[in-house]
Amino acid sequence: MHKENAPVSDDPLHPHPQRSTVSSFPARPRILVVDDEILILEGMRRLLAARDYDVTTANGGCEALIAIGKQQFDVILLDLGMPDLSGAEVLRFVADRSADTPVIVVSGDSTIDAAIRALRGGAADFVRKPYEPEELLRRVDNTLTRRRLERENNHILQRLQQSEKWHRFLVNSSPDFIYTLDCDGRFTFVNDRVESLLGYTREDLLGQHYSTIIHEEDLARAEHVFNERRAGDRSARNIEIRLKCNPGMRRPRLMNGRCKAVELTATGMYDEDATLFERRFIGSYGVAKDVTERKQAEETVHYQAYHDLLTGLPNRALFRDHLALMLAQAKRSHKTLAVLSLDLDHFKVINDSLGHTIGDELLLAVGARLRQCLREGDTLARLGGDEFAVLLPTLLSRGDVEQICRKIIQVLSRPVYVKGHEIYISVSIGACVAPDDGEMIDSLIRQAEIAMYQAKAQGRSRLQFWEAGMQAPYSERMQIEADLRRALARNEFVLFYQPQVDTVSGEVRGFEALLRWWHPQRGFLSPAEFIPVAEESGVIVPIGDWVLREASAQMAEWRRAGLPQVRLSVNISARQLESPDFVESVMRAVQVHALDGQQIELEITESLLMRDFEANAIKLGRLSASGIRLAIDDFGTGYSSFKYLSRFPIHTLKIDQSFIQELEREENLSIVNAMVAMGRGMNLNVVAEGVETQSQLACLQQMQCHEMQGHYYSVPMSGHDATALLGRHTRGFVEAAG
User: Where does the record place the Response regulatory domain (predicted)?
Assistant: First the structure.
């Protein structure tokens, strides 16, 4: 039972347990988690709660300040990028209000500046997202342990400041290296921490000059700190110095294993018995705080900011730095240099067929082979994916570039053996030479990339030098992409409608919605002129959503006008189908106008269906359950497999126009006849595309093809003309068209 007047033990190493009020953590340390992402916040809460921590969450910086104002926390896990109040502002608030509360920054900002600012702003640690759960828990445990030791250390200082025994205990138990020097700079006292920090015993250092443990490169700076004569506020504080470890240490150490980074605070000591005007300098007192882990974290962040983490090669940022330096040197020495852009041919096929693990191993092997082909002083970098870059300084002629590139192509043509797989690869190389092709860093890199694309277009596995005029098609593509991004906002797109007609009755059964772009300078553009750019850039997703909304609005207008009910087919792109909210975007377009799902038909190619078979089957199954129809577009050009087709809720087969346009050929006639028979056997609606002649019509009628679409009946028409067509009596349309 606790007694207030219980005696205190005289043994500094064993204080009386009943009087010990050392501030320690409660049974469940309190942790505040701050992040503006709900999923991340909940994930971290569950992870920490499983360790039996008392976890409080704050969804943003403002909530964090409120929580900190209400209670004290043992550790704060803080995100940097938050919309309401940044992590840096929260960090400053914590430093001002709760200076002893450690903050671990958990941020997705991978830049070196963000990490260094956080650490210098008072953060105890820095963890990058995405984090490994075990690593995060280890960092939290270590931080709690350090805080407990610091609080115990501070409490002991308060209780034992009057006792020499307690003072010795405090000094020797400190997590910092504490020492005193005489006026000649020789150690007169070192605490026990020196042994675990540097591997020296107290006896090794007493009487030795401080320079014994100073890293050679820091001797000049150390002279001013270790010989500090100033006292009070003017004394040296938090000066970074590297201390050498005992060469005989056996345990592995951080950094390079031979030194430790410390922050040194030193003050001069004077004879207390002398008068104010006769104070005699007797030496200096210093405290060295180990910051090796922090420095290692900074170095790691710096390395990751400038290197590719898979291959260890310089990344684009470091490559640009090297290029800038070499350009300056080449300009002074009036020499030339070359920039190479290298891209592996058909690397995506290897990744898709063998998996990304094999792909990564292949990239490592390629990086090793490329190093063997280069000279000392050349720079090899990985810019991303399967794209590498090479900087060749101090060239005598373009022949040097050709010689190196021939060697690269030859070396990479040899098979690579990765985990039992024999892989053959080739490489396409683009090159530009400075100053002949320019002296701007980004322009040289871009020109080499364009030359590389030209090498691929000309057959791959070759070298192509940059030539004036190569950039024109790429500039045009960039302009189209920029115009595409503005086209939706400017209402430049329009839908045309091509009828799908019953082969027997001539009635219009439906329309296919076809996208056209009314470009303000180029006029009407067909899909072939801009859809590939939209697909590659991702702009096709919002464009596809607009097509769905516009087509649904047109259907609603025809319904309000009392026109015959027809179905409307809309083409779906790969990017749309892969979008996470694809199903929801289709359902929104239908529900906004209260349409019957049977009136909307989505046209998807066979090859697109097979790209992610299981995921696509689930998405299309959900749409089919709500009544939406599905058509296989360009049938016959892809898999054409009963096995695959039976897995999807298909309603319509659209025979590709390439078969229809050559129906006079006997083999094509047999193929189309088989397709129609297959579709009818599967109870599917069959539509022939590209019908342009009476003979094609007669053949398809004989095959009992359900519907036809093509210029024989009508070119794609505007919404106004399509409305007028539906307003007329649809019977006899075949005769009228004839």
Answer: 30-144
